Amino acid sequence: MAGDGRSEPTDLRSHGPEKAPLAAENTHGIAELDRLVSSCFACPRLVAWRTEVARVKRAAFRDEDYWARPVPGFGPDDAAFLVVGLAPAAHGGNRTGRMFTGDQSGDVLFAALHAVGLATGAQPVSADDGIEMIGTRLTAPVHCAPPQNKPTAAERRRCAPFLSRELELLRPSLKVIMVLGEFGWQALFTVLGEGGWTIPRPRPRFGHGAELALTHPDGRTVTVLGCYHVSPHNTFTGRLTPAMLENVLTRAKALADLD
């Protein structure tokens, strides 16, 4: 998978892993950005947590080697559709090394992506399970698993250059962004605003099914869609049903011309 971290971008050697986000703007492609993301040590609290989780492990995964590093985005470098979540799960992406893979949230998301024709498989279990994305990429505003699934505002800001650069590298192809939850919504609009996009004032509020077309002074356009997060809290209570999720994905697929 992209983001295996086996080689360091040249810029990381000058900045050091504690300042990896500062090198993001100098990456020359998605693969290089993914490697940079997976090498990051910028947030001490998150580094300590991802390492501790991998040491203690969950009983069901006691024989597995955890990834225990920042989890890069997953999907093609010419995606027309970007899904923005929150952060990797401690025993999901932090274990498998792939976004939305190995936990209940990922199971729900991939089942819906597969159902509408945006992923080749419906049951993500590992980084080498053979699933491929179709015109779609998965990412998050925070790339390390946070304690209690709650990144701090400072951690979100520190990680923001990665999302900013990802959006720029997808620039030639990106048409639609779907945001899962309030945290990702706020993070995305902050990055878009800093990137020069015209953001309405007051800033649009998050809501399931929200839809907003944005323009950039250079002529680019993108449509942002809101969707409740695929967390167990939302899916187990029925706040987000498979049909609701598939409806938003179907709309995104049409807007992205992926039919």
Secondary-structure blueprint:
Elements: H1 10-15, H2 30-38, H3 44-56, E1 81-84, H4 93-96, H5 104-115, E2 136-139, H6 153-169, E3 176-180, H7 182-194, E4 211-215, E5 221-227, H8 232-237, H9 242-255
Helix pairs in contact: 5-9, 6-7
Biased composition (Basic and acidic residues): 1-18
Pfam family, one: UDG
Region (Disordered): 1-23
Number of domains: 1
Instruction: Work out the strand percent.
Output: 5-15%
H/E series, N to C?
Answer: HHHEHHEHEHEEHH
CA-atom Rg in angstroms: 17 Å
CATH topology: Uracil-DNA Glycosylase, subunit E
At the fourth level of CATH, the homologous superfamily is Uracil-DNA glycosylase-like domain
Cα shape: globular
Instruction: Tell me what the CATH architecture is.
Output: 3-Layer(aba) Sandwich
What structural class do helix, strand and pairing data support? alpha/beta
Strand order of the largest sheet: 2-1-3-5-4
Model description:
The protein has 259 residues and is α/β, with parallel strands linked by helices. The protein has one domain (74-255): Uracil-DNA glycosylase-like domain (Uracil-DNA Glycosylase, subunit E, 3-Layer(aba) Sandwich). It contains nine helices and five strands. The protein has helices spanning 10-15, 30-38, 44-56, 93-96, 104-115, 153-169, 182-194, 232-237, 242-255; strands spanning 81-84, 136-139, 176-180, 211-215, 221-227. It has a five-stranded mixed beta sheet, with helices on both faces. Helix 6 (153-169) packs across helix 7 (182-194). It starts with 9 loop residues before the first helix and ends with a helix. Mean pLDDT is 93; it is low at 1-12.
